[in-house]
Records
---
Amino acid sequence: MKNIFSGYAGLVLALLSLFALSSCSDSSEITEPIPVTEGGKLRIEFDNVVGDKNLVLNSVSYVNATKEDFVVTKFNYFISNIKLTKTDGTIFTVPQDSSYFLIKEDVKASQFVTLNNVPYGDYKAVEFMVGVDSLRNTAPLEKRKGVLDPGGSMLEDGMYWLWNSGYIFLKLEGTSSKGNPVNNKFYYHIGLFGGYSEKTVNNTRVVKVDFGNLKASVTDKATPEVHLLVDVLKVFDGPGTNVSIEQFNSIMGGQQEKSQQVANNYAEMFSLDHIH
Amino acid sequence: MRTKNTKSGWYLLMLCALALSVMSCGKETEEPDPEPTGPTPVVWKKPAHFPDPVYDLSRNPLTEEGIELGRFLFYDGILSRTNQIGCGTCHQQQAAFTHHGHELSHGVDDLLGTRNSPAVQNMAWSTSFFWDGGVHDMDLVPFNPIENPVEMDLRVTAAMEKLRKTPLATSKIPVNYPKMFKAAFGTEEINSERMMKALSQFMMTMVSAASKYDYFKGGDANALNAQEKEGMVLFQKNCSSCHEGELFTNQSFRNNGLMPMRIDDKGRGAITGNAVDNYKFKVPSLRNVGVTAPYMHDGRYHTLEEVLDHYTDSVQNSATLDPLLVQQNGKTGIPLTASEKQSLIAFLRTLNDEQFIREAKLSDPGIGNAL
């Protein structure tokens, strides 16, 4: 009996989340009008590095904290739900529908995120999610355009799990002498938004990068560029755990706890380099 | 936005139609309109004894043209890498849209999958899809078989590219997809939303609710004979806690005591990552169960007799075995006599829906391959 009940609970949950979803997107449309007239641009560069070196795909070998050599062949991740904090403390939230970006190391243009209609002013911090929030993960197909289209170009990089509906938040692939014995490769595909009707781990992470003494001034003439460094080493070497390629040459949806540790790690991979 | 526009477009159209009919008063009432002005709305009707559907039709209102496009997409092998395998290849109408006679289905190049092809019926009420429930929205279902390397093995982007280049002289029937998309959605644009919504529209029409059992429920006491009625009583007592209600499933995930095969398919456990869900699979509907052999997620049982023998004799105990399959004396399974099994099977066969498996509107328009 208990199980039947939980089946219904799941259904109710699913329905509730649908309701929540529709009401949420509705209210955001109403309460957050886009300031079209009084707005400038702000650009964020996501500059992928490995420690103090620039990331170069397919050729340069690096070493993680477990002293394992590795070459990166693919490094993609979603950035979403961007918020900017002004020096006076007020927060500008980029409208939901314009706030999903897929950063790919092999596509230079994808590493520059341009935010439009940003209210003029001085900004002291940026906040964003690594991954795709649960609402968008469960949204109807018409709400999944551009990089979120499960049938769109993003599929060439496979940033969506079809069989377990949900986006892959971060994908790191490469080769290593410690990789799997068949082809020396390792595959880290980290996703899971918390589950639709039943709970899974939630690997979305919200990251805040403070600009410290610097500020990004958006005016009608100037488009400031916030240059962030994104350190691949941190995907392995984290605050809680050092991921070993030898121990884990594949981390995907099947190893939820391990994927959670990687998510804790990648939450720490962003830092400010400079603003210009 | 699109749906809203379409909707208001409809109101406008209906007003025009009304105006026309008023203007033409006194004249002949024949259709004066040779040029179609837009897709024709279809009202989806819920069988009276069924619950409300789960699929949100307001997001994807049915039209004749949308359903027809969905039917073509469902059967056309163009959505596969080899141009051979359509949805209808493994979901054949005469077997209630399963792959009759196939424990596991073979897709492109006869590659085998790992699970038995489930019935495509009454999808409107599905809260989740596939044996493990990994997909929660019907619009997201077709991505899976199309892209699965052992099923149709084609990127949806590539499939859409092929559709855009139709009509092809080489196809069985040269279908003009851009034209069909225009008829269904107003313009020739082919995108994944339109493609999936057309397929969903077709699947919404795949409703099975006209079996002997349904006639009995509708008030025809003679629709079932004595043995079938006895089977129904046994069914309600022994089976309906999972195969519940008019859908004959409560859509939960259960471990029904099947010995894991070599592949060690963890089912729902692989989706939730939770060990308590290991070896659980979605409770399938039993509608049309008489024509959907073989049975279970891996097609291991070929007859209903074998299925019932499983429940009486072969239920394996394990950490996640459904508690409903453990009797008070600690033995596993459901106790049934041989004659009770015969009655149960007689009842199960009353769930066959001849109308559903013959309905011309659901059938292959002549472009499919049944392999």
---
Amino acid sequence: MNLKSALSALTLSLLATSAFAQSKPAVTFDVGGKFDKSFNEAAYHGAEAFKKKTGIAYREFEIQNDAQREQALTRFARDGNDPIIVIGFSNGSALKKVAAEFPKTRFTIIDDVIDLPNVQSIVFKEHEGSYLVGLLAAKASKSGKVGFVGGMDIPLIRKFACGYVQGVKAGNASAEIFQNMTGTTGAAFNDPVKGGELAKAQIGRGADVVYHAAGGTGAGVLRATADAGKLGIGVDSNQNHLHPGKILTSMLKRVDVAVEKALTDANGTAWKAGVTVLGLAEGGVGWADDEHNKALVTADMRAAVDKATADIKSGAVKVHDYMSDQKCPVQ
Amino acid sequence: MMETYLGLLNLLDSTLRLAIPLLCACLAGLYSERSGVVDIGLEGKMLAAAFAAAAGAIAFNSAMMGLLLGVIVSVLLALVHGYACITQRGNQIVTGIAINMLAAGLTALLGNAWYREGGRTPQLDGAARFGDLTLPFAEAARNIPVIGTFYAEVISGHPLPVYLALLAVPLTFFLLYRTRWGLRLRAVGENPAAVDTAGVSVARLRYSAVIVCGILCGLGGTYIAAAQAAIFLPNMTAGKGFMALAALIFAKWRPVAALGACLLFGLLEAMAIRLEGVPLPVIGQVPVQAIQALPYLLTVILLAGFVGRAIPPKASGIPYVKER
């Protein structure tokens, strides 16, 4: 037997064994990277939790530019990875193409809805979580002025802003809100210097609580608020520990839970295509309450936010979703 | 009225913060190009310095050590550029591009290997970061209207690299126009053969210029990572080195004008940040991209010869060959 045929026999036997393995998951993280202390990092924690529990390793890819989105997905699918967890709305159009090409591969996308029989779409009611932190911001603000720094100017980020504004107005009807978006490209999620400048500009106009929904850019926002002795609000992951005592709270988006559940479900039989919406009632969003911000949240604020949580869950309070009509009822 | 004035001070404060990295790179390019070595590797040197500064500051828990390491790494890269362009008479543009690519790749790679955070470093806190300095009498001056508040709000309260960069402007002016070294440096960029005939080493002069260029890029990179952002991220210099080249042309290779050009570019960037989504009187809402594009547009207009003429040093870009 010559070397070539020996090699091909080896490859064949490897392929055969892998067919018996349970699942060969893969995860693509979005621009900003898996250690962005925010959105992608939450997904990373979910995948790691799955790996720890089951001992099944996963392949991963961190998107650096738009051209890589389709390549990475095609590569994973062609290599027989299944399920493939796709983090981030920006992958929507790439996934639509690749999922149609590989109908037998199961895909789960976070933050976008793709209507294909082999795609599971998980979206969050970020507006509900943002409403809660907005309420807290209004109660914590002494100047009656609060700020919002978004990443890329897209409907998803406007959804955070709109929920936040509604929460702020619920806490203090006369509050003034400054809103800024960092940019119009994906790079807007990875520009801490500009994030810091935007926050400083808002602080200069009188804001004393600033909420960011800007991924890696948010590091600059939280740094600027902490430096100025004001309060920042984190997003996606619990960011309270970044500047203890200087971050009012974080809007939690349980991407970790969603990713872990998708991986676990796909490993068993519970995985289903279709749309899953995770809101306050499902535990998909919330606000971070830990030892780092204990002193900042007063009993009065806690009571208000608990009441709002109950009201949203029961449906007594409806938080408007910007993405439903591309409009925000309050500014 | 007071409100508007404070808003203006806020804008100028932001202008200064954004202009400093440009100023460092611009002055760095000025030395290099005045000596006849075109340097488009400013971006790469700043990026490498930013990474070295962040890593050094973390390792020694000292911002000054960060500055030292940032400068050392930047100077080493400058010497690589110098060796290739001066000693080996290589193509200066190609070497510059190589340095940019090397820095972009190496910083991300080393960052990932050392800190396992996707190429970024941990945040710099406490002694690892340059704190804001309050200049003498700043608090007392605050009560003096207009000038006092300007001093307290805009001039005072920046980290050390900002003041070093600002001091580099008069220093550069002095070195360039009032010392023998400066005279020879300017001459070597215009007519190296004449300098050589006078018995002065062209190579040594050019090497000294690229070393100074390295030091200034190191300062700029350190400012970005160890003061402004207090963290290193891959590609965080974001084209500032190229913008500095534009500023250098805009300033026609003169130090004081370089300060002006960098402040103008910084002002435009600060305005773009503040004007986003804010309607202006008469014009209405201006797209931010329009303001962001202004520095480049202004440079193109200048190069096209509409506003005076920008004439580079005659021998810049040409390797010096002693005898033909």
---
Amino acid sequence: MNVEFMLNGRKVSALIEADDSLYTVLRALGMYSVKCGCETTNCGLCTVHMDGKAVLSCSVPAARCAGHEITTLEGMQDEAKLLGSCLAGEGAEQCGFCAPGMMMNVFALAKENPHATDDEIDAFLAGNLCRCSGYVSQRRAVKKYLSIKAGEVCV
Amino acid sequence: MSEQKRGRVIGGVGKPVPKKDAPALLTGKPVYTADIAPKDCLCVKLLHSPHAHAMIEEIDVSRAQKMPGVACILTYKDVPDVRFTQAGQTYPEFSPYDRLILDRHLRCVGDPVAIVAAETEKQALAAMKLIRVKYQVLEAILDAKQAMDNQTLIHPEENWRALVPSCGADNRRNLVAMGEDAHGDVEAELAACDIVIDQEYSTQANQQCMMETFRAFTRMDYYGRLEIVSSTQVPFHVRRIIATALDIPKSRVRVVKPRIGGGFGAKQTAVCEQYPAIVTMKTGRPAMIIYTREESMTLSSPRHAMTMHVRLGAMKDGTIRAIDLHTLSNSGAYGEHGPTTVGLSGHKSIPLYTHHMKAFRFAWHTVYTNTMSAGAYRGYGATQGLFAVESAVNELAHALNMDPAALREHNIVREGEAMPAYYGETAASCAVDRCIARAKEMIGWEKKYPARTLENGHIRAVGMALAMQGSGISNVDTGAVMIRLGDDGIYNMSIGATDMGTGCDTILAQMAAQSLECPVDNITVHGVDTDTSPYDCGSYASSTTYVTGMAVVKTCEELRKKIIRVGAQLLDCAEGEVLFEGDRVVKADASVSVTLAEIANAHMMAGYEDISACISSGSPVSPPPFMCGCAEIDLDPMTGEVNVVDYVGVVDCGTVINPNLAMRQTEGGLLQGIGMALYERPTLDHLGRTVSNSFLQYKIPARIDAPSIRVEFEPSYEPTGPFGAKSIGEIVINTPSPAIADAVYNACGVRVRHLPITSEKVLLGERE
Amino acid sequence: MAKYKNYVLARSIEEAYELNQKKSSVIVAGNMWLRMCGMNKQTAVDLSLLGLDRIEKTQDGFVVGAMTTLRALETDTALNDAFGSVFARALAPIVGTQFRSTATVGGSVYSRFGFSDVSALLLALDAEVVLHQRGVVKLSEYQLEAWDRDIITHIRIPGGQRASVQSVRVSGTDIPTLVCAAAKSEKGIRIVLGARPARAVIAADGLKLVDAQNIHIIEEIAGRTAFGTNLRAGEAYRRRIAPVLMARAVKGCMECEAKEAAEDEC
């Protein structure tokens, strides 16, 4: 079947099978920032935005996306550079494989709770696993990013 | 060496330089294996054994082969009858050559029965369902204690081969290794001790759980050679392993490593490369395998589960006189890293208590069982041994009614002491005493030890443990570095060491910048391609900073000489008359100079020597980093739940090359250690099937589980290391298990000797 | 992975119901657990276009559409005001925000997962399930039934209650080792135990406050409840901590009530 949706601001049409996930379709469309780390919805690597909300693309049926707006890190490069500089400043990305999914969820957090506390950051991002960093540096980097967004800190 | 020179930031050692690949990683660029695979790769899937021990009686792939999109289906009948090991170790490997790509004899649940390659994943899976297999189910050995001299032999095959017979492997006894190392008369010393702690401890087959599962793609290049692009820590070993497995000349294999989504030792084993490789060899088509998380949890290379019997002898005043350790290590169905990991359980735990020690004995057995083959996981046996020895030391402190910190301070190895239990090496750099002192201060040990009860009834308690590791494998590990001078004075550095997210590309560039007195940005780094990179055994055994780092230093020395020679030639003076200043070569009297750019551009013309250098380095010693870890836990005495609320780690890794990256290594390693202690439960059912086969069933710490983790460094200066550096990558995982176990004891009196520390054990006590 | 041949975005609940009468059909709600189960179906029936994702306050409580996400339950102000934020607290440990942004309450209720925090809470609150064909059924009954081919359209949650959920987990985002939900209504206190690890059960109903606060009575109730063993813990451990969680959940209800009384005075 064919499905049409908005991908990073552009209308796309994709030939899909009924049981394809959004994740599969996004990879096929060249959105390589989207990663897969498990089959059980536990890792958060495949996080993208659907109509501005962070979702696990592995669990969204591709067929359900018709007419919806999908955003991946490819479509948020300016924000990625800003948050990326905060993470890189801490060395918090380490292997980087979990970074795109985590960053997409940070963008969702920034919209929902722009002044999140440490505990709120941890709770919001709890579904984004990282095995390298031990998380504490990522927490600091996210905090810094939120302060920059709130205009509290100059870049 | 001045840091600011003509407006440029010079050198990089000691600076928190961002990783060179950070911009690409943090904007989601396609830089990992699967991102760069050709679109027309065949999808490779494995049919796994449902039995822990079986023989294939019949296998029929005829119907499967006719399915749409199927390119090939391979069984044991289609692979070379040449045994090999997947272990990424220097040849001749200690790990026995005990496996085929596909074998009739299946030795664990998950062992591959057939390889299916099809145009799409769905087609491969559909075809796989039609493969008919008749198994003869054999008696399985799941318990390591039952393995040695069992009637059931896991490797009865005639062409099983141990390349290093001295490690004691014997397939007729289910033995992967056995041996003993001793110093002094341990029995006499133990008999003379006032107190002997005599206990058994055990650790689990933990999974590394790197976020990127095992994966590789293969294709034939334009010379008709097999090109393997793999998420591996050991590209040069993969070249040898795959050539051996396929029984083809090594000249026909090339291995390329792109960016890697984590390794932690898992990818020091060639877990998956052989499967797409044989498909490409048979079909000529590009092929890719991507392990599912389930495969990565069930047919991979986890930590060797070990059972350790410790006898720790001391006098009433706390003087430790003797340690006797026996380790039984479970290598699983194959011997990968079996002979070597077990050695670290003693050699990297006992030497911590060298100071008064009169005798030690360390004996070991590594056995085959019908469980998933183990491999290398950060800490590599030291983690297991330190859980046992550090727990025993804590038990000794309680038995003597001493503060465990004071007990350690009394017994720890001092800088300059020879360590008989560490191959006789001397602790040339050792700040473990300062690590303990600082960790105590940071956690508030004097005030908090042992425990206090909060208003809500919860108990707060602290626990401590020490750790050591090595820095590379002495006399074995080697790494070479090549640096070439290019246009306008840039440096192209090629390394064979494999950055798996740790940042070694950046750290090695920092060292080169320091040696060449230039900004870090002036050093480009090229990742690994076995066709073009200088040889490096790979990134494991905590070797990269120490071993390859030293190669950087030596290469830069050589390069400086060449720059000086050409500079002198251009200035028309003798080599001895000029100095290299990073961006120029200047005559000692400062009368004339020539810029590096001029030298670089000149040497690309006829008449000048090539300015490049490639030097390898290895070390006769493996200087241990040391650390002290302190856990503060919150224990709910009504449910037995344990949460780490604060963890302090103070590390002596010699000179810290990049404080940010060293800190991240430490924080990440500590949290993995906390996961191992509390959450991660590798579990088999009675048929040998892994139940903990997903992130749903095998819980690694999430953000909300991460306590405050506070890390500081107490640097020593390692004379044999680059800029005084030692290793950091592995040691950091070792302290949490013993420290948390003792904190639990301090909180509620329950001693957990068998990991993990579950709330069930805490509440109900440990059952045998 | 679940496999389907056709994927139908139903235009009406009637259409969805008709399609779902075939054994070869399956209803897709959040698609969280469904995709993992490896079932092979002809037709997947998607309910996402039917407007079943609203939370409405009514005279006697709330009506929640079956496709309402757990995240919506967690963040809905009216719902959480009405129940002392118990939804926010009880659902927060479930995997992660992204998971909860697509996992649905209808999916949780239909699946009757033993480990479900959602079912335990709704059961304690004496929720009702509105089925397209059968109409309104008590969750306490529905919970015990086998899977059928009817479709949940709404969940009704009676108001005027205070509730608390207590759980023990291996790690912060794990499914519970044991979960206990207690709710206090006019009829007394109801205590539900889930992740035993079997399906959630009502361990006690209509309990008087004085009895609910008596640890001996709580222990006796726990003693009558069946527990089992799985990867996360053994039967003995669950039995041991059940009264602890039950007492805490009862206490949680009371604290919630006291806090609101104090707020009302302000």
